[in-house]
Amino acid sequence: MAEVARRPGPPILLSLPALLFFAALLVTPLVMTVALSLQAFDLNTGATGGFTWQNYADVLTDPYYHTIFGRTLGIAVATTLACILLGAPEAYILSRMRSPWRSVFLIVCLSPLLISVVVRTLGWALLFGRNGVINQALGALGLGGGPIPLLYTTHGVVIALVHVALPFMVISVWTSLQRLDPRVSHAAVSLGAGPFTMFRRVILPQIIPGILSGSLIVFAMAASAFATPAIIGGRQLKVVATATYDEFLGTLNWPLGAALAIALLVVNAAIMLTYNRVLERRYARFAA
Description:
The protein is mainly α. Helices cover 74% and strands 2% of the residues. The protein has helices spanning 11-14, 16-37, 54-61, 63-96, 101-110, 117-128, 133-140, 154-178, 182-190, 195-224, 227-233, 240-249, 254-287, and strands at 40-42, 46-49.
């Protein structure tokens, strides 16, 4: 008698171990953070339990936090734009190189990922100081009337964050370029298309998905970065991550720190979902 083949179980049962692992490592701490953000706080006793929206009201109504959120989003947007302008051409140039130079320069571009973010940021702090390498080199060349303020400034944080996040943009665009058939470009040239037309009509539609995914990664990293703004920006230039750290370990106001973290998560998710939807619609119209 032939053995009856066993029917596979429902898909939910196959993915249950992964879902439980995901819930244990992400969903559970997130739920606990939301619950903590809804507790009251007393200077003498700390978190007092109960239920209150006061922490979120403070975040939404206090101009101090408005400034911090505006600075955080401004730094994230500037970092994302800089990574697009630098990373997309860099990935395209790498894709046009021949072996072995392509592999060598790709490793060079991705080599910052081999170094800790803290170590890289400390290196930038040494470069940005009033007596750092950059200001010493400019002084030796006779450029500038004095030390250029780079440390504890917004543009200094953006430069350091670009160095941290640029490899992710290069990887994303590089992945899209690997699916580009070179025969399509050759066909466009044979039909009389100039370099700009070929780039706009053939290459750009192919790399837009890579730019989109890379910009989402870079924006999320820049908006939630802690080490780089804390070292380069210092105590004078607060972002949401450093403000959350101060609330948790400085004033010990854990509910307010949790509210700041959840507010940043919601703002990031809303911006990224809106950005993804708008660009996907424009890309579909452009590709058509």
